[in-house]
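request received
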Amino acid sequence: MKPAPFEYHSPSSIEEILTLKSQYGDDAKFLAGGQSLVPAMNFRIVQPSVLIDLNRVSDLSFIREDGNVIRVGSMARERHLEFDASIEKRTPLLHEAVPSIAHPQIRNRGTIGGSIVNADPAAELPVLMIALNARLKAKNKSAERWLDAKDFFAGMFTTALESDEALVEIELPFAEPRTGWSFMEVAPRSGDYAMMGVATSVTLDENGKCKSAKLVYLNAGDGPVDAVEAAQSLVGEMLNDTLIESAALHASEKEITPFGNIHASAEFQRHLAKTLTMKTLKIAAERATKEN
Amino acid sequence: MTHTINLTVNGQKYTRTVEPRMLLSDFLRHELGLTGTHVGCEHGVCGACTIMFDGESARSCLTFAVQADGHEITTVEGLATDKDNLHPLQQSFWEAHGLQCGYCTPGILMTMIPFLKQNPNPTEDEIRHALSGNLCRCTGYQHIVDAVKLAAEKMR
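response:
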Protein backbone atom coordinates (compact mmCIF):
# COMPACT_ATOMS: atom_id res chain seq x y z
CA MET A 1 0.00 0.00 0.00
CA LYS A 2 2.77 2.43 -0.89
CA PRO A 3 3.04 4.28 -4.19
CA ALA A 4 5.80 3.44 -6.65
CA PRO A 5 8.53 6.08 -6.94
CA PHE A 6 7.85 9.12 -9.11
CA GLU A 7 9.38 12.46 -10.01
CA TYR A 8 7.56 15.39 -8.41
CA HIS A 9 7.03 18.91 -9.71
CA SER A 10 5.04 21.64 -7.99
CA PRO A 11 5.18 24.78 -10.09
CA SER A 12 3.18 27.87 -9.25
CA SER A 13 1.96 29.02 -12.68
CA ILE A 14 -0.37 27.60 -15.33
CA GLU A 15 2.34 28.13 -17.98
CA GLU A 16 4.79 25.95 -16.06
CA ILE A 17 2.33 23.09 -15.56
CA LEU A 18 1.45 23.08 -19.26
CA THR A 19 5.11 23.15 -20.31
CA LEU A 20 5.79 20.17 -18.04
CA LYS A 21 2.75 18.30 -19.37
CA SER A 22 3.77 18.85 -22.98
CA GLN A 23 7.25 17.64 -22.08
CA TYR A 24 6.17 14.44 -20.30
CA GLY A 25 2.82 13.69 -22.00
CA ASP A 26 1.11 10.52 -20.80
CA ASP A 27 3.98 9.66 -18.42
CA ALA A 28 2.86 12.55 -16.22
CA LYS A 29 -0.30 12.91 -14.22
CA PHE A 30 -1.67 16.07 -12.67
CA LEU A 31 -2.15 15.89 -8.90
CA ALA A 32 -5.24 17.91 -7.93
CA GLY A 33 -6.97 17.00 -4.64
CA GLY A 34 -5.52 13.51 -4.79
CA GLN A 35 -8.62 11.88 -3.32
CA SER A 36 -8.95 9.39 -6.19
CA LEU A 37 -5.44 9.45 -7.66
CA VAL A 38 -3.53 8.81 -4.43
CA PRO A 39 -5.59 5.72 -3.40
CA ALA A 40 -5.02 4.35 -6.93
CA MET A 41 -1.30 5.06 -6.54
CA ASN A 42 -1.25 3.45 -3.09
CA PHE A 43 -2.75 0.32 -4.64
CA ARG A 44 -0.29 0.74 -7.55
CA ILE A 45 -3.20 0.57 -9.99
CA VAL A 46 -1.62 3.69 -11.45
CA GLN A 47 2.12 4.32 -11.45
CA PRO A 48 2.80 7.66 -13.12
CA SER A 49 6.51 8.33 -13.50
CA VAL A 50 5.93 12.07 -13.05
CA LEU A 51 3.44 13.96 -10.87
CA ILE A 52 2.71 17.60 -11.60
CA ASP A 53 1.15 19.00 -8.44
CA LEU A 54 -1.41 21.75 -9.16
CA ASN A 55 -1.90 22.73 -5.52
CA ARG A 56 0.53 25.66 -5.69
CA VAL A 57 -1.07 27.22 -8.76
CA SER A 58 -3.11 29.91 -7.07
CA ASP A 59 -4.67 31.08 -10.38
CA LEU A 60 -6.79 27.92 -10.58
CA SER A 61 -8.84 28.13 -7.40
CA PHE A 62 -11.26 31.02 -8.08
CA ILE A 63 -15.06 31.02 -8.00
CA ARG A 64 -16.55 34.22 -9.45
CA GLU A 65 -19.61 35.55 -11.24
CA ASP A 66 -19.09 36.96 -14.72
CA GLY A 67 -22.19 38.28 -16.53
CA ASN A 68 -24.67 35.42 -16.49
CA VAL A 69 -22.23 32.62 -15.71
CA ILE A 70 -20.13 31.46 -12.78
CA ARG A 71 -16.49 30.78 -13.57
CA VAL A 72 -14.80 28.19 -11.42
CA GLY A 73 -11.09 27.37 -11.49
CA SER A 74 -10.40 23.67 -11.83
CA MET A 75 -8.60 23.60 -8.45
CA ALA A 76 -11.54 25.03 -6.46
CA ARG A 77 -12.13 22.59 -3.57
CA GLU A 78 -15.45 20.81 -3.28
CA ARG A 79 -15.73 22.26 0.21
CA HIS A 80 -15.55 25.78 -1.25
CA LEU A 81 -18.29 25.00 -3.76
CA GLU A 82 -20.42 23.78 -0.86
CA PHE A 83 -20.29 27.09 0.99
CA ASP A 84 -20.08 29.53 -1.92
CA ALA A 85 -22.93 32.08 -1.93
CA SER A 86 -22.93 32.57 -5.73
CA ILE A 87 -23.20 28.84 -6.34
CA GLU A 88 -26.04 28.58 -3.84
CA LYS A 89 -27.94 31.40 -5.54
CA ARG A 90 -27.07 30.88 -9.22
CA THR A 91 -26.67 27.12 -9.56
CA PRO A 92 -28.79 25.71 -6.73
CA LEU A 93 -28.63 22.19 -8.18
CA LEU A 94 -24.86 22.15 -7.66
CA HIS A 95 -25.26 23.60 -4.17
CA GLU A 96 -27.72 20.87 -3.26
CA ALA A 97 -25.57 18.06 -4.66
CA VAL A 98 -22.10 18.88 -3.32
CA PRO A 99 -22.71 17.56 0.23
CA SER A 100 -23.38 14.14 -1.34
CA ILE A 101 -19.79 13.99 -2.60
CA ALA A 102 -17.90 11.65 -0.25
CA HIS A 103 -17.13 12.83 3.31
CA PRO A 104 -16.22 16.32 4.59
CA GLN A 105 -12.54 15.30 4.93
CA ILE A 106 -12.52 14.31 1.25
CA ARG A 107 -14.34 17.48 0.13
CA ASN A 108 -11.75 19.58 2.01
CA ARG A 109 -9.10 18.37 -0.45
CA GLY A 110 -11.06 17.16 -3.50
CA THR A 111 -11.40 19.60 -6.39
CA ILE A 112 -14.03 20.21 -9.05
CA GLY A 113 -11.52 19.75 -11.88
CA GLY A 114 -10.00 16.61 -10.40
CA SER A 115 -13.35 14.88 -10.16
CA ILE A 116 -14.38 15.95 -13.67
CA VAL A 117 -11.14 14.78 -15.27
CA ASN A 118 -11.18 11.52 -13.32
CA ALA A 119 -14.53 10.82 -15.08
CA ASP A 120 -15.65 8.15 -12.65
CA PRO A 121 -19.16 7.05 -13.77
CA ALA A 122 -20.16 6.87 -10.08
CA ALA A 123 -19.03 10.43 -9.29
CA GLU A 124 -21.40 13.35 -8.84
CA LEU A 125 -19.55 16.24 -10.51
CA PRO A 126 -19.41 14.82 -14.07
CA VAL A 127 -23.17 14.21 -13.90
CA LEU A 128 -23.74 17.72 -12.57
CA MET A 129 -21.64 19.29 -15.32
CA ILE A 130 -23.95 17.78 -17.95
CA ALA A 131 -27.10 18.60 -15.98
CA LEU A 132 -25.94 22.23 -15.64
CA ASN A 133 -24.90 22.59 -19.32
CA ALA A 134 -21.40 23.50 -18.19
CA ARG A 135 -18.60 24.39 -20.57
CA LEU A 136 -15.08 23.25 -19.83
CA LYS A 137 -11.89 25.04 -20.84
CA ALA A 138 -8.95 22.86 -21.86
CA LYS A 139 -5.56 24.44 -22.34
CA ASN A 140 -2.17 23.34 -23.62
CA LYS A 141 0.93 25.48 -23.75
CA SER A 142 0.02 27.14 -27.05
CA ALA A 143 -3.78 27.10 -27.31
CA GLU A 144 -7.05 26.72 -25.47
CA ARG A 145 -10.47 25.36 -26.40
CA TRP A 146 -13.93 25.16 -24.84
CA LEU A 147 -15.88 21.91 -24.72
CA ASP A 148 -19.49 21.32 -23.80
CA ALA A 149 -19.69 18.97 -20.83
CA LYS A 150 -21.68 16.48 -22.88
CA ASP A 151 -18.75 16.18 -25.33
CA PHE A 152 -16.12 15.99 -22.61
CA PHE A 153 -16.82 12.55 -21.16
CA ALA A 154 -15.66 9.72 -23.39
CA GLY A 155 -16.40 6.62 -21.32
CA MET A 156 -15.15 4.96 -18.14
CA PHE A 157 -12.42 7.19 -16.61
CA THR A 158 -11.85 8.72 -20.06
CA THR A 159 -12.23 12.30 -21.32
CA ALA A 160 -11.68 14.29 -24.50
CA LEU A 161 -8.54 15.90 -23.04
CA GLU A 162 -5.35 15.44 -25.07
CA SER A 163 -2.19 14.31 -23.28
CA ASP A 164 -0.75 17.83 -23.30
CA GLU A 165 -3.92 19.55 -22.03
CA ALA A 166 -5.20 20.54 -18.61
CA LEU A 167 -8.73 21.39 -17.59
CA VAL A 168 -8.34 24.93 -16.24
CA GLU A 169 -11.81 26.43 -15.94
CA ILE A 170 -15.47 25.48 -15.67
CA GLU A 171 -18.23 27.82 -16.86
CA LEU A 172 -21.62 27.31 -15.23
CA PRO A 173 -24.61 29.20 -16.68
CA PHE A 174 -26.96 30.73 -14.10
CA ALA A 175 -30.19 28.76 -13.67
CA GLU A 176 -32.87 30.31 -15.90
CA PRO A 177 -35.99 31.86 -14.31
CA ARG A 178 -38.68 29.29 -13.44
CA THR A 179 -36.10 26.53 -13.06
CA GLY A 180 -36.57 23.82 -10.44
CA TRP A 181 -33.92 21.30 -9.45
CA SER A 182 -33.32 18.25 -7.30
CA PHE A 183 -30.40 15.93 -6.68
CA MET A 184 -30.80 12.57 -4.97
CA GLU A 185 -28.67 9.49 -4.60
CA VAL A 186 -28.87 6.28 -2.60
CA ALA A 187 -25.69 5.02 -0.93
CA PRO A 188 -25.21 2.15 1.52
CA ARG A 189 -23.69 4.64 3.99
CA SER A 190 -23.63 8.45 3.95
CA GLY A 191 -20.64 9.52 1.83
CA ASP A 192 -20.07 6.16 0.12
CA TYR A 193 -20.28 5.63 -3.62
CA ALA A 194 -23.95 5.78 -4.52
CA MET A 195 -25.74 2.75 -5.97
CA MET A 196 -27.73 5.18 -8.12
CA GLY A 197 -28.19 8.91 -8.31
CA VAL A 198 -29.85 11.51 -10.50
CA ALA A 199 -29.46 15.23 -11.12
CA THR A 200 -32.76 16.66 -12.28
CA SER A 201 -33.59 20.10 -13.61
CA VAL A 202 -36.81 21.45 -15.09
CA THR A 203 -37.48 24.89 -16.60
CA LEU A 204 -41.08 26.00 -17.15
CA ASP A 205 -42.38 28.57 -19.61
CA GLU A 206 -44.65 31.48 -18.64
CA ASN A 207 -47.71 29.25 -18.91
CA GLY A 208 -46.27 26.63 -16.59
CA LYS A 209 -45.47 24.15 -19.35
CA CYS A 210 -42.12 22.41 -19.37
CA LYS A 211 -39.69 24.33 -21.59
CA SER A 212 -36.64 22.14 -21.03
CA ALA A 213 -35.62 19.28 -18.74
CA LYS A 214 -32.47 17.41 -17.75
CA LEU A 215 -32.20 13.96 -16.19
CA VAL A 216 -28.61 12.82 -15.72
CA TYR A 217 -27.64 9.64 -13.86
CA LEU A 218 -24.57 8.43 -12.00
CA ASN A 219 -23.44 4.82 -11.72
CA ALA A 220 -25.82 4.06 -14.57
CA GLY A 221 -23.40 3.23 -17.40
CA ASP A 222 -19.81 3.82 -18.48
CA GLY A 223 -20.06 7.56 -17.85
CA PRO A 224 -22.64 10.12 -16.81
CA VAL A 225 -25.90 9.03 -18.49
CA ASP A 226 -27.95 11.86 -19.99
CA ALA A 227 -31.50 10.53 -20.46
CA VAL A 228 -32.37 12.84 -23.34
CA GLU A 229 -35.44 10.93 -24.54
CA ALA A 230 -37.11 10.87 -21.12
CA ALA A 231 -36.30 14.56 -20.66
CA GLN A 232 -37.63 15.41 -24.14
CA SER A 233 -40.90 13.60 -23.37
CA LEU A 234 -41.65 16.27 -20.76
CA VAL A 235 -41.08 19.28 -23.02
CA GLY A 236 -44.18 21.24 -24.04
CA GLU A 237 -46.29 19.51 -21.39
CA MET A 238 -47.78 20.42 -18.03
CA LEU A 239 -45.93 18.14 -15.60
CA ASN A 240 -48.24 15.69 -13.86
CA ASP A 241 -47.80 12.38 -12.06
CA THR A 242 -48.64 10.23 -15.10
CA LEU A 243 -46.18 12.02 -17.33
CA ILE A 244 -43.50 11.95 -14.65
CA GLU A 245 -43.97 8.23 -14.10
CA SER A 246 -43.74 7.43 -17.79
CA ALA A 247 -40.56 9.52 -18.14
CA ALA A 248 -39.08 7.75 -15.11
CA LEU A 249 -39.97 4.38 -16.57
CA HIS A 250 -38.44 5.24 -19.93
CA ALA A 251 -35.18 6.55 -18.42
CA SER A 252 -34.79 3.63 -16.02
CA GLU A 253 -35.70 0.88 -18.50
CA LYS A 254 -34.48 2.20 -21.86
CA GLU A 255 -31.79 4.81 -21.37
CA ILE A 256 -29.56 3.83 -18.46
CA THR A 257 -27.31 0.75 -18.61
CA PRO A 258 -26.32 -0.05 -15.02
CA PHE A 259 -23.87 -2.91 -14.53
CA GLY A 260 -24.84 -4.05 -11.02
CA ASN A 261 -22.27 -4.56 -8.26
CA ILE A 262 -21.96 -6.21 -4.83
CA HIS A 263 -24.24 -3.60 -3.27
CA ALA A 264 -26.99 -3.55 -5.88
CA SER A 265 -28.05 -5.70 -8.81
CA ALA A 266 -28.66 -3.95 -12.14
CA GLU A 267 -32.37 -4.60 -11.64
CA PHE A 268 -32.32 -2.88 -8.24
CA GLN A 269 -30.34 0.03 -9.74
CA ARG A 270 -33.07 0.45 -12.37
CA HIS A 271 -35.68 0.38 -9.62
CA LEU A 272 -33.77 3.08 -7.72
CA ALA A 273 -33.43 5.16 -10.89
CA LYS A 274 -37.17 5.06 -11.48
CA THR A 275 -38.02 5.97 -7.89
CA LEU A 276 -35.41 8.74 -7.71
CA THR A 277 -36.52 10.16 -11.05
CA MET A 278 -40.12 10.42 -9.92
CA LYS A 279 -39.15 11.96 -6.57
CA THR A 280 -36.71 14.48 -8.04
CA LEU A 281 -39.00 15.47 -10.93
CA LYS A 282 -41.85 16.21 -8.51
CA ILE A 283 -39.58 18.32 -6.31
CA ALA A 284 -38.06 20.09 -9.32
CA ALA A 285 -41.50 20.84 -10.81
CA GLU A 286 -42.71 22.21 -7.49
CA ARG A 287 -39.63 24.41 -7.08
CA ALA A 288 -39.94 25.66 -10.68
CA THR A 289 -43.54 26.69 -9.99
CA LYS A 290 -42.49 28.57 -6.84
CA GLU A 291 -39.74 30.34 -8.78
CA ASN A 292 -42.45 31.86 -11.00
CA MET B 1 15.24 12.50 -6.12
CA THR B 2 14.44 13.95 -2.70
CA HIS B 3 12.91 17.25 -1.65
CA THR B 4 13.55 19.39 1.40
CA ILE B 5 10.38 20.51 3.12
CA ASN B 6 9.64 23.00 5.88
CA LEU B 7 6.43 22.57 7.77
CA THR B 8 4.81 23.23 11.12
CA VAL B 9 3.40 20.33 13.08
CA ASN B 10 1.54 21.05 16.30
CA GLY B 11 3.12 24.50 16.44
CA GLN B 12 6.67 23.20 16.05
CA LYS B 13 8.71 23.86 12.90
CA TYR B 14 10.46 20.98 11.17
CA THR B 15 12.80 20.73 8.19
CA ARG B 16 13.18 17.28 6.65
CA THR B 17 14.24 15.71 3.38
CA VAL B 18 11.69 13.33 1.85
CA GLU B 19 11.15 11.15 -1.15
CA PRO B 20 8.08 12.44 -3.05
CA ARG B 21 6.20 9.16 -2.63
CA MET B 22 6.27 9.32 1.17
CA LEU B 23 2.73 9.65 2.45
CA LEU B 24 2.09 12.35 5.04
CA SER B 25 0.79 9.63 7.42
CA ASP B 26 4.10 7.74 7.21
CA PHE B 27 6.07 10.97 7.50
CA LEU B 28 4.31 11.92 10.74
CA ARG B 29 4.77 8.45 12.23
CA HIS B 30 8.20 7.41 10.99
CA GLU B 31 10.06 10.69 10.51
CA LEU B 32 8.59 12.72 13.37
CA GLY B 33 7.70 9.84 15.70
CA LEU B 34 4.13 11.12 16.06
CA THR B 35 2.48 7.71 16.19
CA GLY B 36 -0.86 9.05 17.43
CA THR B 37 -1.95 9.33 13.80
CA HIS B 38 -3.09 5.81 12.98
CA VAL B 39 -2.97 4.09 9.63
CA GLY B 40 -5.87 1.85 8.73
CA CYS B 41 -6.82 1.30 5.12
CA GLU B 42 -4.36 3.61 3.32
CA HIS B 43 -6.87 4.40 0.62
CA GLY B 44 -9.02 7.06 2.19
CA VAL B 45 -11.92 4.97 3.42
CA CYS B 46 -11.43 4.39 7.17
CA GLY B 47 -10.53 7.88 8.42
CA ALA B 48 -8.06 6.64 11.08
CA CYS B 49 -5.27 8.83 9.65
CA THR B 50 -7.31 12.06 9.68
CA ILE B 51 -5.23 15.11 10.63
CA MET B 52 -5.82 18.84 10.25
CA PHE B 53 -4.19 20.43 7.19
CA ASP B 54 -4.22 24.21 7.65
CA GLY B 55 -7.03 23.76 10.17
CA GLU B 56 -9.26 21.54 8.04
CA SER B 57 -9.66 17.80 8.44
CA ALA B 58 -7.96 15.69 5.77
CA ARG B 59 -6.76 12.14 5.17
CA SER B 60 -3.00 12.06 5.76
CA CYS B 61 -2.77 8.82 3.73
CA LEU B 62 -4.04 10.67 0.64
CA THR B 63 -1.51 13.48 0.87
CA PHE B 64 2.20 13.29 0.15
CA ALA B 65 4.51 14.73 2.80
CA VAL B 66 6.12 16.89 0.11
CA GLN B 67 2.75 18.62 -0.35
CA ALA B 68 2.82 19.78 3.28
CA ASP B 69 5.80 22.05 2.55
CA GLY B 70 4.94 25.47 3.97
CA HIS B 71 1.74 24.25 5.58
CA GLU B 72 0.50 23.77 9.11
CA ILE B 73 -0.42 20.28 10.32
CA THR B 74 -2.15 19.39 13.56
CA THR B 75 -2.19 15.81 14.83
CA VAL B 76 -3.87 14.30 17.87
CA GLU B 77 -0.66 14.98 19.85
CA GLY B 78 -1.39 18.69 19.41
CA LEU B 79 -4.68 18.61 21.32
CA ALA B 80 -3.70 18.28 24.99
CA THR B 81 -0.93 20.08 26.82
CA ASP B 82 -0.33 16.97 28.99
CA LYS B 83 -2.21 13.89 30.19
CA ASP B 84 -3.84 15.77 33.07
CA ASN B 85 -5.10 18.57 30.84
CA LEU B 86 -6.99 16.89 28.06
CA HIS B 87 -8.78 18.85 25.35
CA PRO B 88 -12.53 19.05 26.21
CA LEU B 89 -13.22 16.74 23.27
CA GLN B 90 -10.76 14.14 24.58
CA GLN B 91 -12.15 14.54 28.11
CA SER B 92 -15.65 13.94 26.75
CA PHE B 93 -14.57 10.77 24.95
CA TRP B 94 -13.14 9.54 28.26
CA GLU B 95 -16.24 10.45 30.28
CA ALA B 96 -18.81 9.15 27.77
CA HIS B 97 -16.74 6.02 27.00
CA GLY B 98 -16.50 7.04 23.34
CA LEU B 99 -13.88 4.43 22.54
CA GLN B 100 -13.03 0.79 23.07
CA CYS B 101 -9.83 -0.28 21.29
CA GLY B 102 -8.97 3.33 20.43
CA TYR B 103 -7.65 2.68 16.95
CA CYS B 104 -10.11 5.01 15.21
CA THR B 105 -10.13 7.61 18.00
CA PRO B 106 -7.37 10.00 16.83
CA GLY B 107 -8.97 10.26 13.41
CA ILE B 108 -12.38 10.87 14.92
CA LEU B 109 -11.03 13.58 17.23
CA MET B 110 -9.29 15.36 14.36
CA THR B 111 -12.51 15.20 12.34
CA MET B 112 -14.68 16.50 15.18
CA ILE B 113 -12.49 19.48 16.15
CA PRO B 114 -13.16 21.46 12.94
CA PHE B 115 -16.72 20.10 12.82
CA LEU B 116 -17.55 21.49 16.29
CA LYS B 117 -15.85 24.75 15.44
CA GLN B 118 -18.09 25.18 12.37
CA ASN B 119 -21.14 23.71 14.07
CA PRO B 120 -21.03 24.35 17.85
CA ASN B 121 -24.58 23.14 18.46
CA PRO B 122 -25.02 20.05 16.27
CA THR B 123 -28.02 17.75 16.11
CA GLU B 124 -27.53 14.00 16.43
CA ASP B 125 -28.13 13.63 12.69
CA GLU B 126 -25.45 16.18 11.90
CA ILE B 127 -23.01 14.43 14.23
CA ARG B 128 -23.68 11.06 12.59
CA HIS B 129 -23.25 12.57 9.14
CA ALA B 130 -19.99 14.22 10.19
CA LEU B 131 -18.77 10.86 11.57
CA SER B 132 -19.61 8.99 8.37
CA GLY B 133 -16.06 9.24 7.10
CA ASN B 134 -14.59 7.49 10.14
CA LEU B 135 -15.01 3.77 10.69
CA CYS B 136 -15.22 2.32 14.21
CA ARG B 137 -15.57 -1.45 14.46
CA CYS B 138 -16.01 -1.64 18.28
CA THR B 139 -18.50 0.81 19.64
CA GLY B 140 -21.50 0.79 17.35
CA TYR B 141 -21.01 4.59 17.40
CA GLN B 142 -23.62 5.30 20.10
CA HIS B 143 -21.08 6.31 22.74
CA ILE B 144 -19.07 8.26 20.18
CA VAL B 145 -22.17 10.30 19.36
CA ASP B 146 -22.75 10.81 23.11
CA ALA B 147 -19.14 11.94 23.55
CA VAL B 148 -19.43 14.48 20.73
CA LYS B 149 -22.68 15.83 22.21
CA LEU B 150 -21.00 16.15 25.60
CA ALA B 151 -18.00 17.88 24.03
CA ALA B 152 -20.27 20.33 22.22
CA GLU B 153 -21.77 21.28 25.61
CA LYS B 154 -18.37 21.65 27.24
CA MET B 155 -16.97 23.71 24.36
CA ARG B 156 -19.89 26.13 23.95
